[in-house]
Design a protein that fits this description.
mainly alpha; three-stranded antiparallel sheet; 21 helices; about 50% helix
């Protein structure tokens, strides 16, 4: 009788020996045990447990190997007691109890029943229809054909009764090798040789005494002859414990050729990095808006121009009425001052006017810079006062304020001592109706009579008085409260005049100065640029009956003054201010 070594797999317990044990088994018993161990089909197992078909196939295969080893362990005496004739008969294996597995129906008993026994004669026909043939005939995938083939093989086997079955004709087969070497894979143990051993070939079983085809098996180890086998002829039973694995390999078909790349297009990025990063799209400049906004702005300006022109015509129509003509005759826009003032402007008035304009432009620039500056580039510290560190821009702003205050004080003293204060200080209540009359004449573009060399009109007088005696002192008081010159120990005074009040009034006061400068410069050029520039920058007017209204002297001086102011505007930066600030304290970058 032919015997074989049972193919061993992974250990059942971590760190244990390979399972099943290294024992010699009878091929007929192994075939019967392996066939009956697959009674629980993968299809029914998947339906009863709710697992996928692939997991059910693996469970059925593992169960077949375990049941074969269990059958050998439960009947070890078969190897010694089986005779050559009895080994080929069915009753030799009919009394082997089957290992029970999962139930076929949810909530049922384990399958197969406890009274079932293994039958060697029914195992061969069960494995006849291979999964590959079934897949080709039905048109299904191989994965779906494997559970179906296994289920057919299991369902085709009858369940043995508790009593002994009648003897069946012996099944004999001759093992023939086809000479095809098996493909070797990974070693069974770490550091071992590849499995199966070199020189192992595929063996197919040819029918000898029965027309039932035998399944294709693998010869994994050379057969070892036992004394019982040497005593007499034994039928060749080509079977191993890997019958189910053989069916799975047949379903998979021939091994794929891995020498050529896979036939699909590359979908992975090549990984090449661009040499130059793409430049981000530039945001549209506020100075250059998109063409829809530009066209909309032009249309808006045109609409405002039309409204202004219409307003001018309406006011002219209103002033042409009889009662408005009487009002303009009574209040022409100016009145004679109560105090006689010498005509003309002294040279010191022109110089005061230039210094005031120069300082005011730089004060507005530095003030806006202080409000928008987040990280100062340089700091200034007073000598001997380390706690008074402020930004260089704030120091520049406060220094300009001090110069502006000094210039304003000198101007007020001079106009009081010379009597020119009466030109900008109202001395009669007639100033208000005359200011209204002058305002209507300005709006209608019918300019009032200009007699600034001798007397300002009432609207000019109110504007100058508000700027010199109201707005300027308010700017000084609020700026002093926010500066470092404010006494920190004066708690009562600080509560009476909170710094929040100063901050709330200082910025609107600056806006008033900006609006006054814009309107003042516009009227200077609209109401006679050469005459007005001669008055303020060259102190030229009517001297001894000679008129200098059409002289370009004042205009030239005005151009030089604008150049100086522009130079001061561009020079107001830390590179130029730091050396000057070091004369009065310490300058540092932190």
């Amino acid at each position: 009788m032919a015997t074989r070594m049972l193919r061993r797999g992974l250990p059942r317990v971590k760190g244990g020996e390979a399972w099943p044990p290294a024992i010699e088994i009878d091929g007929t018993v192994v075939l019967a045990a392996a066939s009956d161990a697959a009674a629980s089909s993968a299809r029914d197992l998947a339906e009863s447990t709710g697992t996928s078909r692939e997991e059910a196939v693996r469970s059925a295969t593992s169960r077949a190997v375990d049941e074969t080893a269990g059958a050998v362990a439960e009947a070890p005496a078969v190897q010694d007691t089986v005779a050559p004739v009895a080994a080929a008969s069915a009753p030799a294996a009919s009394g082997t109890a089957l290992r029970r597995g999962l139930p076929r129906v949810a909530g049922g008993d384990p399958w197969p029943p406890a009274s079932a026994s293994a039958s060697a004669s029914a195992s061969a026909p069960a494995a006849a229809p291979s999964a590959r043939d079934l897949a080709e005939s039905t048109g299904t995938s191989r994965e779906e054909a494997v559970p179906s083939a296994t289920s057919r093989a299991v369902d085709a086997q009858p369940v043995a009764a508790p009593t002994a079955a009648p003897a069946a004709p012996a099944v004999a087969a001759a093992a023939t090798a086809d000479g095809v070497a098996l493909r070797r894979g990974l070693p069974r143990a770490a550091g071992g040789d590849p499995w199966p051993p070199a020189g192992t070939s595929r063996v197919s079983a040819a029918p000898a005494a029965s027309a039932v085809p035998e399944p294709t098996v693998l010869e994994t180890a050379p057969a070892v002859a036992t004394p019982a086998a040497q005593a007499g002829p034994a039928p060749a039973a080509a079977s191993t414990t890997v019958a189910v694995a053989s069916a799975l390999r047949q379903a998979q078909g021939p091994s794929p050729d891995v020498s050529t790349p896979l036939p699909f297009a590359r979908t992975v990025w090549q990984g090449t990095t661009p040499r130059h990063a793409a430049e981000p799209e530039r945001e549209p400049s506020r100075l250059r808006p998109p063409w829809p906004q530009a066209i909309g702005g032009l249309l808006g300006l045109a609409a405002l121009g039309l409204i202004a022109v219409a307003g001018v015509f309406l006011i002219r129509a209103f002033l042409s009425l009889s009662f408005m003509q009487d009002f303009l005759t009574t209040y022409p826009g100016e009145y004679h001052p109560a105090v006689d003032v010498n005509p003309g402007f002294a040279p010191w008035v022109g110089w005061q006017h230039f210094f005031n304009m120069f300082l005011m432009v730089l004060i507005i620039r530095s003030g806006l810079r202080v409000r928008s500056e987040k990280r100062p580039t340089a700091f200034w510290t007073a000598r001997g006062k380390a706690k008074t560190k402020i930004s260089l821009t704030l120091w520049f702003h406060q220094s300009l304020d001090l110069l502006w205050i000094i210039n304003g004080v000198i101007f007020v003293v001079l106009i009081i001592t010379t009597g020119h204060w009466a030109r900008i200080v109202p001395t009669s209540w007639e100033v208000f109706p005359n200011a209204l009359s002058a305002g209507l004449q300005y709006v209608s573009f019918d300019w009032p009579l200009d007699n600034g060399w001798v007397n300002y009109n009432s609207l000019q007088q109110l504007a100058y008085f508000t700027t010199v005696f109201l707005a300027a002192p308010l700017a000084v008081v609020t700026g002093f409260r926010m500066s470092g010159l404010w006494p920190t120990k004066a708690e009562k005074l600080s509560k009476a005049y909170p710094v929040e009040w100063a901050r709330a009034l200082h910025f609107p006061t600056m806006l008033y100065f900006v609006a006054f400068i814009i309107v003042h410069v516009a009227l200077v050029f609209l109401t006679g640029a050469l005459r007005n520039l001669n008055h303020m920058f060259a102190s030229l007017g009517s001297v001894d009956g000679v008129q200098y209204a059409a002289n370009w002297t004042g205009f030239g001086i005005f151009v030089l003054a604008m150049i100086v102011i522009a130079g001061g505007w561009f020079a107001a930066r830390p590179l130029v201010l730091a050396p000057i600030a070091k004369l009065f304290g310490q300058v540092s970058g932190r």
